[in-house]
Amino acid sequence: MNISITKNQLFFLIIKTQIGIGLLSLPSVIQHSAGGDAWISVLGSGLAIQLLILVYWHLCKRYPGMNLSEMTIVFFGSYIGRSVNAIYYCFFVIIAGYACTLYVRLIKVWLLPLTPGWVLLLLIIGVSIYLALEDLRVIARFYQLAAVLFVLLFVISLATFSNDIHLSNILPVGQSDISQIISGSEKTFFAMLGFEVILYFSAQVKDTPSGILKTITMANWFVTLFYSYFVFICLIGFSQEALSKVKEPVLFLLRGLTFQLFDRLDLIFLTIWIIPMSATIVSYFCLAGKSLATSKKGYQRLVWISGLLVLLVGSYLYKQENMESISQWIEYGYLLMIVAVPLLMWILSFLFRSRHKRRLT
C-alpha cells in the first residue's frame, strides 16, 4: 500500500486528476459572471487553490508518512475517524459516478450517438478499475506517459488562431467588477478540483517537505495556466452572446477547422481528451480505496466494490434530465470534505500538537 513515488510522478498524478471534462465547458460557464475578464477569474481560482494547498502541505508536513484517512484517526479517534473515512469513501464514489455520467453524455453527443449509454459506462468503469487495481507507481508512470498528450492538445489548439480572432472581446482588461471576477473564480474552483489527491498521495513521496511544496505548487500553476489559455482562446474566438449559447466552446472552436490532411479537429481533440477524463476516474477509484483499506488485498477489494457502486450511481444519474441540482449538492459536498474538514484538522493540529505527538510516539 505504501509504495513510494517520485515528486515528478506526484506532479503528473495531480494534473491528470485535475484536468478533465470541466475544461470543455468552463469558458461559457464563467463568462456569464466575469465576461471578458473570465481568464482573470481562472488565475484568481488558482491563487485560492494555492492557499488551500499550503494548508494541505503544512498538515502533511506535521504528520509525515500519513495520508488523510490515517490523520482522521489521529484527530477524531478510532470510531469517529473511521466514520469520517466511510463518508469520504461514499463521497469519492459519488464523484466518480457523477464524472462518468458527464463523460458518457459528452461522448454520446459528439462521438457515438447510437451507442447505448450503459455500454459506454461499462467501458469507462472497466478500464478505470483495470488501472486502479495496479500499484500507485504504475498508475503514476501511465500518467507520465499520457501527459505527452497535453502537448498534442496544445498544438491542436494553436490551429484556432487561423480563425477570426477578436482581442476587443477581452478589452478593456478589468471591465468586470471585483464581485463578478470572484463569482467567476468560484465557478472555476469547482472545475479545477482534483488537487485533493495531495492529501493521499504526498505521503508516499520520498522527498523533503520543501521539495514536495515546490512540486504541488508547480502542478497547481500548470493547471491554472492551462485552463487560462483555453478560456482565453475561447474569449477571443467567440462573442459573449455566442459563448453563452455554446455548452462546449473548446470543441466548437475546433469544429469548423479543416485542413488538407485533417478534418474535424474537434473529434480528434475529444478522442485524445478521453484519456485525461478517464484518468480522473482512476484517481477517484484510488482515493476511494485508500479511504478505508489498510492492506493491498483490502484496497483491491474496495476498488471492485467501488466499480459496482459507481455503475449504479452513474446509471441513476444518467437517467436524470436535470443535473443542476445534483451538481449543486456535489459542490456543497466538496466544500465540506475538501475544504472544511482539512481546515478543521489543520487548526486542531495547532491546538493539540503535544497530544498528537505523544499519540504518534
The amount of helix comes to: over 70%
- N-C termini distance: 22 Å
Task: Please give the radius of gyration in angstroms.
Answer: 21 Å
Question: What structural class should be given to the helix and strand makeup?
Answer: mainly alpha
Strand count, sense and barrel status of the largest sheet are:
none
Could you say which overall geometry the principal axes of the C-alpha atoms support?
A: globular
How would you characterize this protein structure?
This protein has helices at residues 7-18, 22-34, 38-62, 68-110, 117-132, 136-146, 148-157, 178-191, 198-201, 209-237, 240-245, 249-255, 265-292, 296-318, 324-351, 353-360. The chain has one domain: Amino acid/polyamine transporter I. With 361 residues, it is mainly α. The model has no long low-confidence stretch (mean pLDDT 90). The protein contains 16 helices and no strands.
Please render the helix and strand layout as text.
Layout lengths: L6 H12 L3 H13 L3 H25 L5 H43 L6 H16 L3 H11 L1 H10 L20 H14 L6 H4 L7 H29 L2 H6 L3 H7 L9 H28 L3 H23 L5 H28 L1 H8 L1
List the main descriptive attributes of the protein structure presented here.
single chain; 361 residues; mainly alpha; Amino acid/polyamine transporter I; 16 helices; 77% helix
Summarize the structure.
The protein has helices at residues 7-18, 22-34, 38-62, 68-110, 117-132, 136-146, 148-157, 178-191, 198-201, 209-237, 240-245, 249-255, 265-292, 296-318, 324-351, 353-360.
